[in-house]
Amino acid sequence: MKKNFDIAVFHGDGIGPEIMAPTLAILDRMAKASDSYGLTFTDAPAGAAHYVETGEALPVASMDRARNADAILLSAMGLPDVRYADGTEISPQIDLRKALTLFAGVRPVRVKAGQRTPLNMPAGREIDFVLIRESTEGLFHTQGCGEMTENEARETLLITRDISEKLFKFAFGLAKQRKAAGRGPGRVTCVDKANVFRAFAFFRAMFDAEAAQHPDLQADHAYVDATALWMIQKPWDFDVMVTENMFGDILSDLGAGLMGGLGLAPSADIGLDHAVFQPCHGSAPDIAGRGLANPHAMILSAAMMLDWLGVKHDNAAMVADGTRLREAVEDVVARGTALTRDLGGTVGTARAADAVLDALFVA
């Protein structure tokens, strides 16, 4: 029986609506071609432009739509010249993370053999790992509420047992899924700075406790500075990495750099009941309305959404379509015939998205 899923859609700011439109068109076509699932898209107004118009960055009605949806698809959000009165950015995506307790920030890094990358990749090598960033606390805990005097400024790093135990359970569960799918050896690396900070020794101890529950998987540790080095020297050695919020924020951009840029960097913020899927890049208002934006990170985020919904609801067809969509984008990028400017090509948003559709339904 065909099951329908309600998707809350945040169209975003700047180039956000331009990359969301083709993504929804691709998802709609895939769903209509499926006998196993359908998708209904419900708009949820929010963002910097909405704040300018209404004085609200994330209306209660939009939050309710997100809370009641089966999944949340969110495009690039925020504008550099639009700020709250205290000078902080308009970031509804962070508000959603906190309100829905989306503790696991999932950042996949994938480079196929032959794909262009800033690295000097050995022949035949591929990169395929996932960085999991805790997304609700860490050094972001006091965001916008730090203490500041004329001579000092302080922010508080928070690591709790409640969130960390959920985070590590998620990380080992993902490693198990990847191992079963043949995408990794079943290895989880805790990235921290436990040699300096008591908070990270606490973090690592909880990781080790969860690791003991998974004798079928590998578990190890790495300091964050060494990890940054190894991500350049031997990124193919990683499988699943899990780390604190700020460390993950920095390392995820490094991971995007390995792929060639943020235009290929999808993400998800996942909790026990809800999940948001969005590209890692910003709203790029300088090219908004010109049809130049790279839609691939948005489309790859949608592929992650299909996979998550499929796993959660035991819908094999959705998992398979998530894989098909991811591989279609990867094939388009690897072929190099329909690349946007940020990847060294000349095509615009529509042509790049059409190439993905062709890979899905024509090739």
From TrEMBL:
**Coiled-coil regions in this chain?**
none
Q: Where is the Isopropylmalate dehydrogenase-like domain?
A: 6-356
Q: Which Pfam families match?
A: Iso_dh
Q: Does the record bear NAD in its keywords?
A: yes
* Cofactor entry: Mn(2+); Mg(2+)
Task: Tell me if NAD is a UniProt keyword of this record.
Answer: yes
Q: Which GO terms of the molecular function aspect are on file?
A: 3-isopropylmalate dehydrogenase activity; magnesium ion binding; NAD binding
One record GO biological process: L-leucine biosynthetic process
Q: What is its EC number?
A: 1.1.1.85
PROSITE patterns xrefs: IDH_IMDH
- What PANTHER family does the record tag this protein with? D-MALATE DEHYDROGENASE [DECARBOXYLATING]
Q: Record's family?
A: Belongs to the isocitrate and isopropylmalate dehydrogenases family. LeuB type 1 subfamily.
Q: What is this protein called?
A: 3-isopropylmalate dehydrogenase
What organism is this sequence from? Answer: Pseudooctadecabacter jejudonensis
